[in-house]
Design brief:
By secondary structure, the protein is an alpha/beta fold. It has 18 helices and 7 strands.
């Protein structure tokens, strides 16, 4: 099967480029994450014993042994190994490795420091899951759950602030003019944009939480939005709703914790303001990139709101539970979101998912990993149009909401990237800057 990624395009970001962000990520950050995973499993030894007896303890030992071996493979740039568990995506991962081998020269084999960074980072998380899959009865243990839950609880003040703000808006929603609806939409879109700063994979699993009211920070943060296509996103929504049928909006999620809360707040607003009729959330099929949202995280978050003693949090929780129950909100965790493919390959690799996304009026892609997959995680020039970097991936109008935490960025004005580099050498990786980038099938 010929993939779109085989077209003539810039090279992939890779740890083979010494001194690059990809190099330091593979050399340092990924190894640190594996060490934390090993520690987490070991600290839960008593839990495994209480739940499964000696069988749980033996499974813990075997999983740690596999993860220690994995860490050594990474640190010594060993060849990529085929997966040996029996999951629904195992064969696709192994086929992908064969394709990676085919594009290498001579006797080279895919390895941690030579292969594309996107592939190797995804592969590491898939191998973490394999170490558990091969060791029942602890195969369903989420090694990142503690960190995700901690991040949520440490962001309580900011969560209460945004829920309080949201309820104030919803209480008067029926009386708001279109101009005022637009004003609130732009604010909440920026809140969910900056919610993406809370990324545990970038901090190597160190707790990252939102401490202050996100609404209060928006004006200060505005100059750091490098591309702002918010009005194009608004036009899609308002034009679709004016046409008589309220649009379906899809949100491809990134982090659990505070970021997920901002996504839910925005989704609630879109429904309450009649800018959308249904929201389709897309999350990860397995624990992924430390803090990415799984179905369990999604459901757990809504339960925390329902249990909250704060009246606005519990009110949000009750409404969100209703949305889930009546089908206004749906959650899908298609395996494609945890495969290593660039999104331009989706129509061939997962046509059923691509066809479903074509039914959407607007797709919001949250976060850095989704941006890397949208653009192929390649060495594009800064000024390459966003739509060109998508390389044919356009199931519907789409928008990337992303704070920059990897060295890939397109769609900038001439000289903009160079000026940023002169002022801040880490502008593409420190999470200080952000983009709201839109692409439409009709946009040229």
């Amino acid at each position: 099967m010929k993939m779109a990624s085989e077209d003539v395009v810039p090279v992939s970001l890779s740890a083979k480029f010494q001194g690059s962000f990809a190099y330091f990520t593979v050399r340092d950050r990924m190894s640190t994450i594996l060490t934390k995973v090993i520690d987490t499993i070991h600290r839960n030894k008593n839990k495994f014993f209480e739940e499964h007896g000696e069988e749980g303890v033996e499974a813990e030992k075997r999983a740690i042994s596999l993860l220690s071996k994995l860490r050594n493979e990474l640190q010594t740039d060993k060849p990529v190994l085929v997966l040996s568990d029996d999951q629904q995506d195992t064969e696709e991962w192994n086929q992908y490795m064969v394709r990676q081998q085919a594009v290498l020269d001579g006797n080279e084999v895919p390895s941690w420091f030579k292969s594309p960074w996107l592939y190797m980072e995804c592969y590491m998380y898939r191998r973490v899951q394999e170490s558990l899959n091969l060791n029942p009865p602890i195969c369903n243990f989420d090694v990142f759950e503690e960190a995700k839950n901690k991040s949520f609880f440490e962001s309580q003040l900011a969560i209460i602030a945004i829920c309080t703000y949201q309820q104030g808006v919803l209480n008067k929603i029926e009386d708001l003019s279109e101009e005022h609806i637009l004003e609130q939409f732009l604010k909440l879109l920026q809140v969910t944009l900056w919610g993406n700063k809370c990324d545990l994979s970038v901090s190597s699993g160190q707790a990252i939480s939102q401490q202050c009211s996100p609404i209060d920070s928006l004006e200060v943060l505005k100059p750091y939005i490098l591309v702002d296509d918010s009005k194009s996103v608004w036009s899609v929504l308002i034009n679709s709703s004016s046409a008589g049928s309220l649009p379906r909006v899809d949100i491809v999620l990134d982090n659990a914790g505070f970021e997920l809360v901002t996504d839910l707040i925005l989704a609630d607003f879109l429904l309450s303001s009649r800018l959308a009729s249904t929201i389709h959330f897309h999350g990860k099929y397995m624990p992924w990139f430390v803090s990415d949202t799984t179905k369990k995280d999604f459901e757990w978050t809504i339960k925390q709101f329902l249990r909250s003693n704060h009246k606005y949090m519990s009110k949000c929780g009750a409404q969100w539970k209703k949305y889930c129950k009546d089908g206004t909100w749906t959650f899908d965790d298609h395996k494609y979101w945890t495969l290593p493919h660039e999104f331009c390959d989706m129509a061939q690799v997962a046509p059923e998912l691509y066809n479903d996304l074509q039914k959407s009026s607007l797709i919001l892609f949250k976060g850095d990993l989704n941006y890397r997959k949208l653009t192929g995680d390649r060495k594009w020039d800064y000024t390459v149009p966003f739509q060109r970097a998508l390389r044919g991936f356009q199931p519907a109008p789409l928008c990337s909401l992303r704070t920059l935490k990897a060295d890939v960025q397109v769609g900038l004005k001439h000289g903009q990237g160079e000026n940023l580099s002169a002022a801040d050498s880490n502008w593409m990786t420190n999470g200080k800057y952000a983009v709201i980038q839109f692409s439409s099938p009709c946009k040229q």
